[in-house]
Amino acid sequence: MLRNRLIFSLIYNGGAFMQSRNFRLQRVGDITWLERNYKFQQISFSLDELIILNASRDDKNIVDFSQIVKRLVDGVFIPVAAGGGIRTLEDADLLFRNGADKVVLNTSLHTNPNLPREIAEKYGNQSLVASIDYKVLSGKAVVFIRDGSENTNIELLDYLNIVKELGVGEIIINSIDRDGTGFGYDLSTFKNVSNVVGMPLILMGGAGNEMHFREGLDQDNVSAVCTANLFNFIGDGLPKARQCMLDKGYNLAVWK
Fold first, then answer.
1. How far apart are CA 187 and CA 165, in angstroms?
2. Positive or negative CA dihedral for 18, 22, 23, 25?
3. Taking the CB of residue 225, how many other CB atoms lie within 10 A of it?
4. What DSSP assignment string belongs to the chain?
5. How high is the pLDDT of residue 152?
6. Active-site residue, 133 included
């Protein structure tokens, strides 16, 4: 049986790392602040994977972002996925060369569906993650792209059925409404789609504590739960959450 995973996501925007709430960004600190206050070489023993997302609103400079990825992965021995602003196969190549084990696509899934197929053909579908952001409007879950600013007018279930044919290895489902709230994952929406897609899904958007992680992993077809809440887990919060989940019998890896 494949183990469940606990994933942390870092949100990067124009030289700094951010807290996000409903996709509204607030600056926390630059990479020097991050390295000083959040040592991933140590905290990685409480994680199974790290995701670094470039949410820069003005210019998603892939070269600059690749250097941030390179600096962050130094000494970190868990898988690292990176994405945001990947428009070409060469962009993906650059992130892989600078330490990414996987790349994450979002907007390009909609605007350039040939790109995920090209990446999967070169690197394998296990190296490709789809990220899907959605809002609930008038009772329907609708997919948004371009950092949550553009409504595709495609319902989540329909979009998932499109994306799963593009060669991706797994899919992040991220609730814009729950993002950064700490209120827990949007399980009601997830339950409406999880049994239809037929591939590993990652829950994101809303986790505030260990109970939310457990609720997420209890859902059918969830392979991992993800949080991007920097403040919640500075200190020993994340190690304690992982140990509590292990004590309750969750199928997480035990790192020595």
1. 24
2. negative
3. 23
4. -PPPEEEEEEEEETTEEEEEETTEEEEEE-HHHHHHH--HHHHGGG-SEEEEEE--SS---HHHHHHHHHHHHTT--S-EEEESS--SHHHHHHHHHTT-SEEEESHHHHH-THHHHHHHHHH-GGGEEEEEEEEEETTEEEEEETTTTEEEEEEHHHHHHHHTTTT-SEEEEEETTTTTT-S---HHHHHHHHHHH-S-EEEES---SHHHHHHHHTSTTEEEEEE--TGGGSSSHHHHHHHHHHHTT-------
5. 98
6. yes
Q: Give tens-digit pLDDT for 62-92.
A: 999 999 999 988 878 889 999 999 999 999 9
Q: Which two tokens stand for residue 216?
A: 């997420």
Strand partners, 27: 18
Please tell me the distance from the alpha carbon of residue 171 to that of residue 15, in angstroms, as a whole number.
27
User: How many angstroms separate the CA atoms of 91 and 56, rounded?
Assistant: 16
Length of the chain: 256
Options 48, 133, 179, 186, the catalytic residue: 133
pLDDT of 197 reads 86
Report the C-alpha gap between 69 and 195 in whole angstroms: 34
Q: Give the residues of the chain that fall short of pLDDT 70.
A: 1, 39-43, 230-235, 256
202 neighbors 177 (Cβ within 8 angstroms): no
**How far are the Cα atoms of 128, 206, 243 from residue 80, in angstroms, in the given order?**
12, 21, 22
Query: What tokens were used for 4?
Result: 């469940």
